[in-house]
Amino acid sequence: MNLHNLTALAVAGALTLGLLSACHDSEQDAQLNVSYVEFDANEAVAPYLENLPEIPEADKDFVIEMGFFDCDHMVGAIIGQESGIYEALGLNVNVTKSGQAMNALIAGDMDCAYVSFQSAINNFNAGAPLIGLVGSHLGGARYFLVRDEITSLDQIKSLTVTETSMESTEWLRFSSELGMDPDYRSYEGVSMSNSDAVTALKADQIDGCFV
């Protein structure tokens, strides 16, 4: 996938999140063929309230610190906030975007966070006091992005190690599907977040990245 395809995906993602915005440009909506639907958060959560325990009076003002990082798998954090679902449930939630969500969770600076399964397992095995309450999705997608000038895998000289390490089972599966050498030691790796990796790719500082 080249940067042109990446741009198209970014635009598609922006449109999806745009549906949650209270303010919008109707003329732009017409050009992009965007449609809006009515959503009542109170009505949406009503069927679940009778199965949920009542929030104690002393906890009603408690602010839940929720973290997530820049990955489309974590978009549920934003949807819950922007759609009013948290408020309808009687919850005070402060959502914070951070590439250090896992570290903040372990340090006690966050109460809950959307994190990758691999990261949760690794930190739990290292003794971190983590509890997995729910999985947000099954499956997903990852991409190996390269500069436009690169037309074959043989031309790749460096590879960015992003949120999911190249030592993970994900990398082993994806590299095999792409016909790449699964041994991460075969590449020059640089550790950075997904957003920094894409910026570095656009600036021709790296040749490819696994995001």
Explain what you see.
- The chain is of the alpha/beta class.
- It has 2 domains: about 20-125, no CATH class; about 145-210.
- Helices cover about 35% and strands about 15% of the residues.
- It has 9 helices and 7 strands, in the order αααβααβαβαββαβαβ.
- The protein has helices at about 5-20, 25-30, 40-50, 75-80, 85-90, 100-105, 115-125, 170-180, 195-200; strands spanning about 65-70, 90-95, 110-115, 145, 160, 190, 210.
- Strand 5 (about 160), helix 8 and strand 6 form a beta-alpha-beta unit.
- The radius of gyration is 20 Å and the shape is globular.
- The termini are close together.
- The model is unreliable at about 1-25 (pLDDT under 50).
Summarize the structure.
The protein contains nine helices and seven strands; from the N terminus they run H-H-H-E-H-H-E-H-E-H-E-E-H-E-H-E. It is of the alpha/beta class. The longest helix has 16 residues, at 3-18.
- Mean pLDDT, all residues: 77
Oligomer: single chain
Strand order of the largest sheet: 4-7-5-6
Provide the low-confidence segments as ranges.
1-24
What is the SS-derived class? alpha/beta
Tally of strands: 7
Helix coverage percent: 25-40%
Distance between the termini: 12 Å
Shape from CA axes? globular
Helix/strand order: HHHEHHEHEHEEHEHE
Rg is 20 Å
Helix tally? 9
Percentage of residues in DSSP E strands: 5-15%
Largest sheet: 4 strands, mixed
Q: Secondary-structure map with pairings?
A:
Blueprint: H1 3-18, H2 26-32, H3 41-49, E1 63-68, H4 76-82, H5 85-88, E2 92-97, H6 101-107, E3 112-113, H7 117-125, E4 144-146, E5 158-161, H8 169-178, E6 188-191, H9 194-202, E7 208-210
Parallel strand pairs: 1-2, 1-3, 5-6, 5-7
Antiparallel strand pairs: 4-7
